[in-house]
Task: structure prediction
Amino acid sequence: MLSVIPFDYHMHSNFSSDSDASVCAMCESAIQKGIPEVGLTEHYDLHPKERPVFYQPEAWWEEIEHVRKNLNGQLILRAGVEIGEPHRFPEEVKALLNHYRYDFVIGSLHYVGDDFMFDNKLLERRGADEIMQSYFLELGEMTRTPQFDILGHFDVPVRNGEPIWRSYDPRRYEALIRAVLQNCIDRGIALDVNSGGLRRPANNLMPDFLILRWYREMGGQHLTLGSDAHYPWDVGLHLDQALKFIRDSGLKFITRYERRHAELQPL
Ligand SMILES: [Zn+2]
Ligand SMILES: [Zn+2]
Result:
């Protein structure tokens, strides 16, 4: 049985617009916490509201290679990327993934149309049902395109929404959620068990426990662990709780990636 946190596959550095931590500082934090493997996953956002595009893959890859040389076997550093709305920008995504050999690719939905899922005023105005229905419907679209390996933070509007709504219940959207899960299972897309909500007022793990149970019932197996850290002190944070959560749901494996090849590891 795994006693330590085996990896953290969702974290950002100053190559993402919303972090000012160096790649080195993020890695050092993982080493200090005894986490043997991490994946840096900078945002590659192409949505019109995120232009000009901030992501600089060439400079980032140089930095990754540089940091890897100095790690002296203390840490396995995976090269990941978090692509926002990959289904909406198929040509750009294809070009990036043909050019660079990432270890894994996270697909994340931050926008539904032009609606930003972290806009508190929008979340309040529209309410839980309207936001979550439109979000899961769009997630169904996104998971029909197999251009990524891991689905990021499954029910992320809840992260900002729950403190406003206080009424999120995935059973209200069960059919939509199961359609997303079926797409993931059919295409071998893993779920990012994301602890980023546990350090926020929502105090939630993503996906919700019930969603993880449905995934297991439907035959899903592939899960990764991610803190979604944007600062060194958040690296690996609450992933021990994520592991317990996975075990409690009855799932038996986590998935490691190298050069986009998935390998199940028993828990
Ligand atoms: Zn994200
Ligand atoms: Zn992220």
User: Anything to note?
Assistant: The chain is about 35% helix and 20% strand.
